[in-house]
Design brief:
The structure holds two protein chains of two kinds.
Chain A (H helix, E strand, L loop, with lengths): L1 E10 L2 E11 L4 E6 L5 H8 L7 E6 L2 E2 L5 H8 L2 E4 L11 H12 L4 H14 L15 H13 L5 E5 L7 H18 L2 E5 L3 H7 L2 E6 L2 E7 H5 L4 H15 L1
Parallel strand pairs in A: 3-8, 3-9, 6-7, 7-8
Antiparallel strand pairs in A: 1-2, 1-4, 4-5, 9-10
Helix pairs in contact in A: 3-4, 3-5, 4-5, 5-6
Chain B lengths: L1 H19 L3 H15 L4 H22 L8 H41 L2 H7 L4 H39 L4 H10 L3 H27 L5 H30 L1
Classes of the chains: A alpha/beta, B mainly alpha.
């Protein structure tokens, strides 16, 4: 379980958000939504301690990740898989090696076991055929899927998706949404999805955290969101629906 | 204030690198790759630099010392000692600041702006141990080796230039080189290259590791890394000369 307690963050004089508190239960999918620049990606970088808050805590299974020493913190980070906005694939190695990367360094698996696990992860994202391709040969959607295969190869407890559908065509975005659901169901993963794509939210999320006006403006289930009278949330959802329907 | 802040961040990165240098299994593979990139891949440019430095110096010395009262062996002594004590180390390092420093800063800067460093940290890697330690170690270990290459080809270039231009016969050149040879000068050259290797790789790692923005940010970090490396190499050259000679 992930518990965020009164988290505040500023960069110099710029307040990103303050007093953000919510809880993510095991095996649920929470979407963090909000306008561009509201600090969604900054928030998930606090969850695995890539960034430190000015005040507040992030409890991962009860322990404050920012209070741990670096070695313990790194162990906690291994509970997370992260799909970055730009996929963050290592461009000096091919697709197979990108997915094998965490296995080579964090497990003592034989070459055969590594191959088996990598191909299994690639099969989840339908990319077994592309294992030998250089990452520069992959399309945007394929890069996201390889990033996802790498994120799940160590069978993480939590997975964080940073704008998983941004920059993708509707069909590929839909495939990614399907994959997020598949991962959650097949691997019992707790998911955090940062997005401003409401179609994606409706497709994958159990709960929604809405960041607005430098704080957590609304938090609740997707069903509650549909019937909410929270003005800013409604404006955000309505604007997205206009975009979807044209 | 800004410079103090930069110095603090640079010191902090070096401290992290020193602390994580014990995690050999994390950077072993990268270290071997870096030894090849910093050392083996730099040999052609160092050979070229050495040969031309030695050749030009011989021709210029011969031109300046045209006198019946100055033995030709003096040219060999001046050229070989200048190469061993100063030129093989400093000119090579300035060239390597462009070749090695720019590469290191660009690689790390690109990894930073494309979130590859965040990806490493997210997986539970110590990114400093994985990226910075092998590059700095490769610099410290390979720069002295490149000094040997630069010295051999510098003196060799001097001998060849003297011979082909007809100004200094090889026997006279070598006689002068032997006569004024002090082993300490070679030790001094090694010490310099050890320090320069550390400066160039650590400054470039620092600039790349903390690069910001997109392509423009990477370009800026690369330029800063090269310029700062050259400045600090010249500064360190002066300090070492004042301390050790």
């Amino acid at each position: 379980m992930i518990e965020i307690q009164n988290l505040s963050k500023s960069f110099g004089d710029l307040l990103v958000w303050e007093n953000v508190s919510f809880r993510i239960e095991n095996n649920e999918t929470v979407a963090i939504i909000g306008k561009s620049g509201c600090g969604k990606s900054v928030l998930i970088k606090h969850i695995n301690a890539l960034l430190y808050p000015d005040s507040g805590k992030v409890l991962i299974d009860g322990s404050d990740i920012h209070a741990l020493d670096y070695v313990e913190q790194r162990k906690k980070r291994q509970l997370f898989g992260v799909l970055f906005q730009g996929s963050a694939l290592f461009d000096s190695i091919n697709t197979f090696e990108n997915v094998a990367f965490p296995l080579r360094y964090f497990t003592k698996q034989s070459e055969e076991e590594i191959r088996e696990n990598v191909m299994q992860s690639l099969s989840y994202v339908n990319l077994e055929e592309s294992a030998s391709k250089q990452t520069s040969e992959l399309s945007g959607g394929m890069r996201k899927r390889v990033g996802l295969a790498r994120a799940i190869v160590l069978q993480p407890k939590y997975i964080m998706y940073d704008e998983p559908t941004s920059g993708l065509d509707p069909q590929t975005a839909e495939e990614i949404n399907e994959l997020i659901n598949q991962m959650a169901d097949a691997l019992d993963i707790t998911s955090i999805v940062v997005t401003h794509d409401m179609h994606s939210v409706l497709k994958v999320a159990d709960k929604v955290a809405f960041l607005d006006r430098q704080t957590l403006s609304w938090f609740g289930s997707v069903d509650d969101m549909k019937h909410s009278d929270h003005k800013e949330l409604l404006d955000f959802v309505t604007a997205s629906e206009y975009q979807i329907k044209g | 204030m800004h410079s103090l802040n930069e110095l603090g961040k640079y010191s902090s990165l070096l401290y992290q690198a020193l602390r994580s240098s014990t995690e050999f299994s994390t950077y072993r593979k990268n270290l071997f790759q870096e030894l090849v990139k910093v050392g083996y891949d730099s040999v052609p440019i160092i050979v070229l630099t050495g040969v031309f430095t030695g050749s030009v110096m011989t021709l210029q010395s011969a031109y300046q010392l045209q006198s019946a009262f100055i033995p030709l062996s003096t040219i060999g002594a001046i050229v070989s000692e200048s190469i061993l004590i100063e030129l093989a180390a400093v000119i090579s390092s300035l060239v390597l600041a462009g070749k090695v420093g720019a590469r290191v800063a660009t690689e790390l800067g690109t990894m930073r702006v494309s979130e590859q460093i965040d990806a490493l940290e997210s997986m539970g890697f110590n990114s400093v141990s994985f990226l910075v330690v092998p590059r700095v170690l490769a610099g410290i270990l390979m720069f002295p080796v490149l000094y040997i290459v630069a010295s051999i080809f510098g003196i060799g270039g001097g001998i060849a230039a003297g011979f082909f231009s007809g100004t200094v016969p090889p026997a006279d050149f070598l006689q002068g080189a032997r006569m004024y040879f002090y082993p300490w000068n070679v030790v001094f050259g090694f010490v310099k290259m050890f320090v320069f290797g550390f400066i160039i790789t650590s400054v470039s790692c620092y600039k790349g590791y903390y690069a910001k923005g997109g392509a423009e940010g990477v370009g800026k970090s690369t330029t800063d890394a090269t310029v700062l490396s050259c400045i600090f190499v010249l500064l360190a050259d002066f300090i070492l000369a004042a301390l050790l000679l």
